[in-house]
Amino acid sequence: MDLARPRVETLLEGYRLGTDQGAVAFCAVNLVEGPDEQGTIRRIIVDTGHTGRRTDLDRALARRGLGRGDIDMVVCTHAHWDHVENIDIFDQARIVLHRNERRYLRSPHRNDHACPEWIGSVFERYDDRIREVEEGVQLLPGVEIVDAPGHSAGTIAVAVAGDDGAAVLTGDSIQNSTVARERRNALVFWSDELATQTIDKLVTIGDVIYPGHDLPFRIDANGKVEYVHDYRLTVTGVPAGEPGLKLDTSETFRQTIMPGIEEQRLPD
């Protein structure tokens, strides 16, 4: 492979699927490939998705001639279950996490349903492979960590300077295009004020936004969203016209802030 600059490729799309029985929680899983300082091609996975997508993640890698052992680094934009459950399959990779996110794992808030206590014990298993990072850390030439707190204590984004401009892989600092337009995070566990500041920051940085739970998109000068490609999703197991089945196609923005958020503190 001959790459002069890093590139981003989506392995698993993110989707903003929800039901009145709970969230489906399909986060985006992206692959960043680029040369290191010596010219060797390195591969980074940004978020791993949850175990319900593990087989599909293996298939997505295989279609590109890759396997689990070909991944050099896994970036966890934050430690919520739907973004990290597959870190165990990349047993050769370095795990990247913001230091504040790792601190938070020692004592997550009792109402934080996205970060139950067991997640801390998962990361403890990989203590010798974890690299704590913050704003400005360069993972590869042209691939840099951006602080993006608010959704969680230590959410990070990854900025990639590629041939087509700047791509920003946001995790849940920007869950979807509606969040980018409204400039408000849809689900806040740490700080609504910081979450709003983060959205403004990332939209300014990125020519293309790779959100946590939506397809990649651009925002033009008039604030109009343009998706990079069309939807690619098939819903199975639900017969059309099933009695009681409803489809809500509204795009009404709904923000949820965790109860007790004013109590949030990082442990010493």
Give a brief rundown of this model.
This protein has 268 residues and is α/β, with parallel strands linked by helices. The chain is 18% helix and 26% strand. The chain has a single domain (7-228, 249-263), classed as Metallo-beta-lactamase, Chain A (4-Layer Sandwich).
Structural class: alpha/beta
Major β-sheet, in short?
6 strands, mixed
Average pLDDT value?
Answer: 94
Percent of residues in beta strands: 25-35%
How many β strands by DSSP?
17
Task: Provide the descriptors you would attach to this structure in a database record.
Metallo-beta-lactamase, Chain A, 6 helices, 268 residues, alpha/beta, 18% helix, five-stranded mixed sheet
Account of the 3D structure:
It comes from Actinopolymorpha pittospori. Residues 26-213 form the Metallo-beta-lactamase domain. Its cofactor is Zn(2+). Keywords: Hydrolase, Metal-binding, Zinc. Belongs to the metallo-beta-lactamase superfamily. The protein is globular. It is an alpha/beta fold and 268 residues long. The chain has one domain (7-228, 249-263): Metallo-beta-lactamase, Chain A (4-Layer Sandwich). 39% of the residues are buried. The model has no long low-confidence stretch (mean pLDDT 94). The chain contains 6 helices and 17 strands. A hairpin with a 2-residue loop joins strand 2 and strand 3. It has a 6-stranded mixed sheet. The chain has a 5-stranded mixed sheet with strand order 9-10-11-12-14, covered by helices on one side. 18% of the residues lie in helices and 26% in strands. It has helices spanning 54-63, 81-84, 99-104, 118-124, 177-182, 192-205; strands spanning 7-12, 18-19, 22-23, 29-35, 41-46, 73-75, 94-98, 130-133, 138-140, 143-147, 156-162, 165-171, 187-188, 208-211, 217-219, 225-227, 256-257. It starts with 6 loop residues before the first strand and ends in an 11-residue tail after the last strand.
